[in-house]
């Protein structure tokens, strides 16, 4: 039974009533997205963005509670309403230019670099050799001192997207808008995969609302153009294939997720061990069988392997942003990243192995391994929480859903950044974001025991 948000024993409702109810629930959400659209530049209006996003997110959590209270919806109409409303939310923010993050500028730069014959794993944006590629978007390319930290699947996507966008328009701003398109298509495909996963697990398909109505992917993908939908598609596809007992395809999808953002490599123990000792060897054989495919994706970039080894440790412990448990380790290490780094790496690996050792259902194991990685990471940007949302549609959890509602607080840092370009975090906002989430997680076992005790107390 999903923690914190469990379906009641109420009977199903008619399609007409379900449709009207969903439309009424969608209207306040759409009103909030229209207000965000009117801000135009979310990064320069970050206080208003945080306030409006809170209002949207709190009503969204009510919608999650409402949809999980219904045992079943009759017919296909309710699902259609969920999908049409979610699509309307997305189209409302599609016209916005990326403003809460500079990542889209980096994607375009890495695509442009490759089109000119460069290797993004070898050449940092500040390399004088590529100064001729700089244009009006150059000043907003982030971390100019670092080479690429994404996987080869993403780098190939950047390369192909830039080639297509450059054919359409020579304008840097026009190309940046076009860079959204591949990721938005994968985001819609991810939503379809969530519906398939829900059906495969015998859960109401309307629970896709938990993913499709969340303001986080709407803002981070359709307004800011982040690349995470590619990762999410492969990750959900891997879970769906595993739940369908199609392990060859599950492990291929997991490989593609690893080649997109690397961290899903921590899920291999879960996938390999979930069937116990008897299934371990066949699954390991399939994992090895797909390595030539993985090598083909890596082949164009093989010269950048050494540089990548220098960049990747920073994703766990090289700079801090919106961290939670990492800050505890960092304080223990006396503010020394080099001392904190191996401890955090060990904790992440131990968490992944401990979850795998328990052999939970695949969806549950992926959800909690991902949550452990995010809690321990030195960097937890708001869009990283989208990694949780497809699986929260399958396993709704009140504490993690609250986290997705509170994470826009992390954007408080942009107030100072836009004023004087200093990236300085206020610990007060970290407490506001994380204290309620950890309190709910710690209280969950006690609340679960109370729910078990109450029926006995009222028994005759």
Describe the protein's architecture and organization:
- The chain has helices at 15-39, 46-68, 77-93, 103-115, 152-168, 172-178, 180-200, 209-212, 215-223, 228-243, 247-261, 268-273, 277-289, 291-298, 305-311, 313-317, 325-332, 337-357, 362-376, 389-392, 398-406, 413-420, 427-457.
- With 460 residues, the chain is mainly α.
- It starts with 14 loop residues before the first helix and ends with a helix.
- The protein has 23 helices and no strands.
- Residues 6-12 and 452-460 have low confidence and may be disordered.
- It is 66% helix and 0% strand.
Key traits:
disordered C terminus; 460 residues; mainly alpha; 66% helix; globular
Major pleated sheet: none
Indicate the percent of residues in helices.
Answer: 55-70%
Mean pLDDT reading: 90
C-alpha end-to-end distance: 26 Å
Task: Give the tally of β-strands.
Answer: 0
Structural class: mainly alpha
Q: Which spans of ≥5 residues are poorly predicted at pLDDT below 50?
A: 6-12, 452-460
Task: Round the Cα radius of gyration to an integer and report it.
Answer: 22 Å
Q: How much of the polypeptide forms β-strand, as a percent range?
A: under 5%
Summarize the helix and strand pattern as letters: HHHHHHHHHHHHHHHHHHHHHHH
The coarse overall form would be globular
Number of helices: 23
């Amino acid at each position: 039974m999903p923690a914190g948000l469990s379906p009641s024993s109420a009977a199903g409702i008619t399609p007409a009533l379900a449709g009207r109810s969903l439309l009424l629930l969608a209207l306040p959400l759409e009103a909030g997205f229209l207000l965000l659209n009117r801000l135009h530049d979310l990064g320069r209006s970050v206080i208003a963005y945080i306030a409006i996003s809170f209002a949207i997110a709190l009503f969204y959590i009510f919608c999650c509670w409402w949809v999980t209270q219904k045992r079943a919806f009759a017919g296909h109409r309710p699902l259609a309403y969920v999908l049409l409303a979610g699509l309307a939310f997305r189209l409302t923010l599609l016209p916005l230019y990326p403003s809460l993050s500079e990542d889209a500028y980096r994607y375009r730069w890495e695509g442009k670099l490759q089109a000119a014959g460069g290797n993004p794993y070898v050449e940092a944006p500040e390399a004088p050799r590529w100064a001729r590629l700089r244009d009006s978007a150059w000043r907003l390319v982030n971390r100019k001192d670092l080479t690429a930290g994404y996987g080869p699947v993403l780098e190939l996507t950047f390369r192909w997207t830039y080639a297509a966008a450059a054919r359409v328009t020579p304008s840097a701003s026009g190309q940046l808008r076009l860079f959204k398109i591949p990721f938005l298509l994968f985001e819609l495909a991810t939503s379809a995969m969530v519906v398939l996963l829900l059906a495969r697990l015998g859960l109401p398909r309307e629970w896709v609302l938990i993913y499709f109505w969340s303001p986080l992917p709407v803002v981070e993908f359709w307004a800011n153009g982040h690349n995470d939908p590619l990762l999410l598609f492969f990750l959900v596809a891997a879970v769906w294939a595993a739940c369908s007992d199609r392990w060859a395809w599950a492990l291929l999808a997991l490989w593609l997720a690893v080649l997109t953002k690397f961290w899903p490599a921590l899920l291999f123990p879960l996938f390999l061990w979930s069937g116990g000792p008897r299934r371990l060897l066949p699954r390991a054989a399939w994992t090895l069988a797909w390595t030539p495919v993985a090598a083909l994706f890596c082949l164009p970039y093989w010269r950048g392997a050494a540089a990548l080894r220098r960049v990747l440790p920073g994703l766990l412990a090289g700079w801090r942003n919106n961290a939670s448990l990492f800050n505890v380790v960092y304080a223990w290490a006396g503010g020394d990243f080099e001392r904190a780094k191996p401890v955090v790496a060990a904790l992440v690996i131990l968490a992944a192995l401990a979850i795998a050792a328990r052999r939970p259902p695949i969806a549950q194991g992926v959800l909690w391994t991902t949550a452990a990685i995010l809690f321990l990471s030195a960097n937890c940007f708001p869009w990283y929480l989208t990694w949780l949302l497809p699986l929260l549609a399958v396993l709704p959890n009140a504490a993690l859903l609250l986290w997705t509602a509170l994470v826009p607080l992390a954007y408080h840092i942009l107030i100072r950044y836009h004023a004087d370009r200093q990236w300085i975090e206020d610990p007060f906002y970290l407490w506001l974001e994380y204290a309620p989430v950890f309190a709910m997680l710690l209280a969950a076992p006690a609340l679960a025991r109370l729910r078990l005790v109450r029926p006995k107390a009222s028994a005759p």
